[in-house]
Amino acid sequence: MKRFQPGVVPTLVVALLLPLLVSLGFWQLGRGAEKTALLSTYAERRAAEPMASTELQHTQDPAFRRVRLHGQFDAAHSLLLDNRQRDGKVGVELLQPFQDQTTGLWLLVNRGWLPWPDRRTPPQFTTPTQVLSLDAWVYVPPGATFQLQADPSATTWPELVTVVDPAKLWTTLDREGFAYELREESGPASYRADWPVVALGPEKHIAYAVQWFAMAIALLGLFIYLGWHNAKEKHHGSGHESTQHV
């Protein structure tokens, strides 16, 4: 009777890779479930009426909550968030400090996306100088908090950054401000304000999970085939040697 003989090296490879592939598959399923819950919370809170700005700092879970603001933009300290795409076009998102007159609190408001087709010239934008009333919603990034990449001692504005941390910006400007970005809803002071909530939807994570599980099954199948194939080869070799001895 043939015995299963995959060999030492294939056994070690499978012992290392198979648990890794399976764990990656379950990790992607977990991420998909998290994104589903995130999108559900987003839809629920975006459908609610905007809260007053006075409630903002006392809200324990501000993510995606709508807020009504009344105040003025600070045009002197704008941030341009680089490497943002819409419909395959490269551009930036314009973020500006906004002081709410009701609370005196500073908020970093994302006014939306601007195209930037020619990197040799700066993006063009204008800033309203009058007092405005606008609606925005709190964006809390999933995972690690954004980190400000700009040099705190820099004096060139607008700053071109790849990631943003409002709390560090307020430290740089020596102001009391809200720790999260607010994304302005479509209105007279906004640019293109159709942000995706998540970069990858739940369906993408499920697709990646299927790929990892498929690789695990293929690896296991190859291991089983190799074990029986090696056993068959050795069995035939042993039979041939016995015939020669006879």
Give a count of the beta strands, DSSP E runs of length 2 or more. 8
What is the count of distinct domains? 2
The helix fraction, in percent, is 25-40%
Individual helix count: 3
Distance between the termini: 21 Å
Largest sheet: 5 strands, mixed, barrel
What strand order characterises the main sheet? Answer: 2-4-5-8-6
Query: Which regions contain 5 or more consecutive residues with pLDDT less than 50?
Result: 145-150
**3D shape:** elongated
Kindly describe this structure.
Helices cover 37% and strands 24% of the residues. It is of the alpha/beta class. It folds into two domains: 8-37 and 202-245; 65-184, no CATH class. Helix 1 packs antiparallel against helix 3 (202-245). It is elongated. Mean pLDDT is 85; it is low at 145-150.
Short note summarizing the structure:
With 246 residues, the chain is α/β, with parallel strands linked by helices.
SSE diagram, text form:
Layout: H1 8-46, E1 51-52, E2 66-73, E3 79-86, E4 89-100, E5 106-115, E6 132-139, E7 159-161, H2 166-173, E8 177-184, H3 202-245
Parallel strand pairs: 1-2, 3-7, 5-8
Antiparallel strand pairs: 2-4, 2-6, 3-4, 4-5, 6-8
Helix pairs in contact: 1-3
